[in-house]
Amino acid sequence: MIMRNSELIMVVLLLAVLSLCKTNSLACNEREKHALLRFKQYLTDPTNRLSSWSLTEGCCGWAGVRCDNVSGRVFELHLGNTEDSGTSTLVGKLSPALLELEHLKFLNLSLNDFRGTPIPIFLGSMSSLTYLNLWGASFGGLIPHQLGNLSSLRQLYLGGNSGLYVDNFSWISLLSSLESLDLGWIDLHRDIHWLDYVSLLSSLSELYLPHCQLNNMISSQGYVNFTHSLTVLSLPSNNFSNNMPNWLFNLSSLLVLDLSDNALVGQIPSTISNLHNLNYLNLSVNLLIGRIPESLGQLKHLEILSMFSNFLCGPIIPYQLGNLSFLSYLDLHRNKLNGPIPSQLGNLSSLSYLYLHSNELNGTLPRNLGLLSNLVALRIGNNSIEGTISEVNFAKLSKLKYLDMHLTSVVFNVSHNWIPPLQLQYIFLRGCKLGPKFPVWLQTQRFLQTLKLHNVGIVGTVPKWFWMWASSIHTIYLGYNQISGNLSQVLINSTNFDADSNRFVGQLPHLSPNVVLFSIANNSLSGRISSFLCQKMNERSKLRILDLSNNALSGELGHCLMRWQSLTHLNLGSNNLSGEIPESIGSLFSLKALHLHNNSFSGRIPLSLNNCTVLGLIDFAENKLTGNIPSWIEERTHLMVIRLRSNEFFGDIPQQICRLSSLIILDLANNRLSGSIPRCLNNISAMATIPSAIDDKFSTLKFSIYLGYQEDYLGYREDLILVVKGRKSTYSSILPLVRIVDLSCNNLSTGIPIEISSLFGLQSLNLSRNHLMGRIPEKIGGMKYLESLDLSNNHLSGEIPQSITNLTFLSYLDLSYNNLSGRIPSSTQLQSFNALDFIGNPELCGAPLLKNCTENEGPQGDENVEGSERSWFYIGMATGFIVGFWGVCGSLLCKRAWRCAYFEFLNNIKDRVYVVTALKWSWVCYHFRRYHMISLGCLRGEQYILQ
C-alpha cells in the first residue's frame, strides 16, 4: 500500500515536471515575436528588465510575457513597474506593433514613464483586451474616445496620470462588461453628466475617482443602475458641495464608501443604515453638521469609521455604536462633539484605534476603556476631560503604543514603583498633572520614540538614569516645568530636544551630530558661548534650530559658527554676549532667522551677512551696534522682519529698504538716524496690502518635522518682542499678521511723506520723538487697519486731517507736543482718547481737551473747505486782473505803432458811437413830440410850441 502511494506521488510529480517543460518550450508565434521586438525598440530600459527579449529566445519565455498553453499565442503582458524606487521604469512611448498581438487579453504598463505622451488611439482597436492597466504611467492629454470600443474590457485602470483629461465621458457607458474602473487624478470636471454615464455600467463593482475635480453628485435620471452590483465607491478629494444624495443609500451591496476631503454639507441621514454590508466608511474633512445618527449602530459589519474634521456636534456617539463588534478604527477628532465619552465604547472589543482628540468632550475617562485589550492608539487630548487615572486604567492595555491626553485636566495617580504592562512608542501628556515627582515608570519604556511632557507639573532634579535612557528617544519635550539639574556633563543625542522654561544650570551640554532641534531657552545656564560652539564632533552637525535665549551665557561668538552650517534658526537673544558679530556668521548660508537682541554686541553689522541669501528675520535690537544700516539689505528679498531698535546706528535710512516687498516689521527706533523718511515706503507691498491668514509669507520661516504618526508634526515657531501701543508685548502665533513701522526716537527731519498713507495694511505707525515738520498727511484716513498711531514730540503743524475719523480700528493715539492747531475732528472714537494724547499743542481745541474753540477758531470740516475755496477764488481773480491789465497796457507802452493804431481805433469808435447816438436820439425826440404836447427833454436850450 505504501509502495503504491509512493508510485502515485512519483507519477504526479513527473507529470507536473513534463507540464512545466511543455510550458517553457511552447513554440512562439514568429509574427508576435517580431512585433514585441519592435515594441521594445520604442522603449528605454535602464535596468535591462527586457534583456531576455532577444531573437535567440522564444518569446513565451521572455520576462513579462505569458502565452496560451495550447496555441502559444501571447495573451498577457505583465510590464508594470513593481519597484517603489522607480529604478526599473520603462521610458518611451507605445508602439502600434501591439496591434499584431491579436489574442492579447491582459496589458499592464503601470508605473512606467511615457513622458506625457497621449494614450494612443490604436489601443481602442485591441478588442480582445479584458484588462488594461496604465496607472501612473505618465500619460497626458485627452483620453481617446476609441477606448469605448473595448467591449470585452472588465478592468480599466488609467488613474495616477494627472496630465490626462476627459471632455465627453459618454464613451465609458459603452464598456458594458466593465467591473472595475480607476480614473483617479484625471480631470473629469468638463462633463457634468459623468454620473449618468457611469451608472449605465450595470456590472460595475468597483469605482475609484479620487482627485478628479468633480463637483456634481446629482444624477439627472434620479437613480443609478449599479444599485446591486457596486461594492466600492471611492470619491475622495473632489469638489462636491451638496448634501449626500439619496441614491447613495440605495447601494445595498456597498462594502466601501469614501467621500472624504470634499465640501459635503448638511447632516448625515439616518438612511445610512441601508448600507448594511458596509465595512469601511470615510466622511472625514467635509462640512457635515448635526448629530451622529443612531442608525450607524445598525452597520454590524463596520470595521473602519472615520468622520474627523467636520462640524458634528451633540453627544459624542449614540450608545448603539457599542454594538459594532467588528469596529477596529474610530476617528472622530476635530469636531464639536460634547458631553462625556460613553462607556459603551468599552464594548468594542475589536477596537484598535480610538481618536477623539480636539473636540469639546468633558467628564471623566470611562474605566472600561481599560478593557480594550486590542487598543493600539488612544488619543483624547485637547478636550475638557478630567479625573484621576491609575494603574487600573492600563491593566489590560498591553498592546497600547500611542497615548495622547494633552491639554486635558487628567491627573496621573500611579505608585512610585509602577511597572506598566505596555510598551509605549508615543507619549503626549502636555498640560496633564504628572508631577511633582519625576515619573520613574518612564524608564521601563524601552521602545519610546516621542516624549512630550510640557507643563505637567514636574518639580525637582532630573534623575541620573534619565539622560542615558533618553539617548535613544527621537523627540523629547520637557518645557514649562520646574525641572532642575546641571547639564555641563550631559550629552544630548535626541533628534529633537526642547527643555524651555525650566531651572537647568551649569554650562551648555554637548550635542550629538544627530541633533536637529535644540531649544533650552529661559533657564539659568551660564559659561562662555564659545565653549559650546567650538565643541568637537566626529561628523558634521545636522543642527537646524538652536535657541539659547534668556540665559546667562557670556563671551564672544568667535569663529566656530562655521561649524554649524546646517542652522536655519539661531536665537541667542537676552544673554550677556559681547564683542563684534563675527564675519563667520556669513558661513551660515541656510540661515532664515537670526536673533541676537538684548546683548552687548558692538561694532558694525558684518558684510558677510550678505551671504545669508534666504534670511527672513533679523533681530539685533538692544545692543551697542553702530554704523550705517547696510545698503546691501535690498538684496535680501526674503526679509520680513528688520528689528534694529535701541542701538547706535546713524546716517540716513537707505532707500533700498523700499525694495523689500515682503517686509512686515520695520523697527529702527531709538537710534541716531537722520535725514528724511523714504518716500518710497509705499513700494513695500506686504504693508500696502491687507493682511491675510491665507497669504502667509511668514510660513517660509516656519519649521516642522513629521513625527511619523498620523498628523503629528513637531514645529518651531518664531516670536518677537515688539513695542506696540506704548508697551512691550511678545508676539508669536499672530506674528505673521502683524504690520509695524517704528522709526521713533531718532533725528529724522522734514515732513511725513504723503506716500506713507498708501500703507493700507499697516497696523502700527510710530514716528514720535523726531524733528518732523509740516502737516499730517490728509489721506491718513486711508490706513483703515491702523490700530496705533504715535506722532508725538515732533514739530508738526496745521490742523488734524478730518480723514483721521475713518480710522475705526484706532485704539492708541498720541499727537502730543507738536504745533497742531484748530479743532480736533469730531468722532466718537477721537473724543474717547485722553486729553494727554493731544497736550502740548497750544492752538489745538475741542474735546477731549478742556479748551473750547471760539468762533474765530471756527469749525472745520466742510466750513474750512468752503473758506479755503473762497480764498482761492479771490486770489485767482486778482491774478487774472493783473495779468490781463498788464498784458494790454504793457504792449501799448512798448510798441509806438501799436499805440497810435490803438488810439486811432478808439477815435473811430468814438465818432461812430457819437453819430449813431445822435441819430438815435433825434429819432426818439421826433416820436416823443408827435405823441406828446411838450417835450422838455429835447429842447437843448430852445423852446418849442406845438401848433
Give a structural overview.
By secondary structure, the chain is α/β, with parallel strands linked by helices. Helix content is 13%, strand content 22%. The protein is built from 8 helices and 61 strands. It has a 30-stranded mixed β-sheet, with no helix packed on it. Strands 28-30-33-36-38-40-42-44-46-48-54 form an 11-stranded parallel β-sheet. A hairpin with a 6-residue loop joins strand 49 (703-706) and strand 50 (713-716). Helix 7 crosses helix 8. It starts with a helix and ends in a 16-residue tail after the last helix. 38% of the residues are buried. The model is unreliable at 11-24, 858-868 and 930-947 (pLDDT under 50).
- Shape call: globular
Estimated radius of gyration: 43 Å
Please tell me the overall pLDDT: 88
Oligomeric state of the chains in view: single chain
Distance, first to last CA = 184 Å
Structural class: alpha/beta
What is the share of helical residues?
10-25%
Topology of helices and strands:
Layout: H1 2-24, H2 30-41, E1 43-44, E2 65-67, E3 74-78, E4 91-92, E5 106-108, E6 131-133, E7 140-142, E8 155-157, E9 163-165, E10 180-182, H3 194-198, E11 206-208, E12 232-234, E13 256-258, E14 280-282, E15 289-290, E16 304-306, E17 311-315, E18 329-331, E19 336-340, E20 353-355, E21 360-364, E22 377-379, E23 384-389, E24 402-404, E25 409-412, E26 426-428, E27 450-452, E28 459-461, H4 465-470, E29 475-477, E30 482-486, E31 491-492, E32 496-498, E33 503-506, E34 510-511, E35 517-519, E36 524-528, H5 529-533, E37 545-547, E38 552-555, E39 569-571, E40 576-580, E41 593-595, E42 600-603, E43 617-619, E44 624-627, E45 641-643, E46 648-652, E47 665-667, E48 672-675, H6 685-688, E49 703-706, E50 713-716, E51 720-724, E52 727-731, E53 740-742, E54 747-748, E55 764-766, E56 773-774, E57 788-790, E58 795-799, E59 812-814, E60 819-823, E61 843-845, H7 862-894, H8 896-931
Parallel strand pairs: 3-5, 5-6, 6-8, 7-9, 8-10, 10-11, 11-12, 12-13, 13-14, 14-16, 15-17, 16-18, 17-19, 18-20, 19-21, 20-22, 21-23, 22-24, 23-25, 24-26, 26-27, 27-29, 28-30, 29-32, 30-33, 31-34, 32-35, 33-36, 35-37, 36-38, 37-39, 38-40, 39-41, 40-42, 41-43, 42-44, 43-45, 44-46, 45-47, 46-48, ...
Antiparallel strand pairs: 1-4, 2-3, 49-50, 51-52
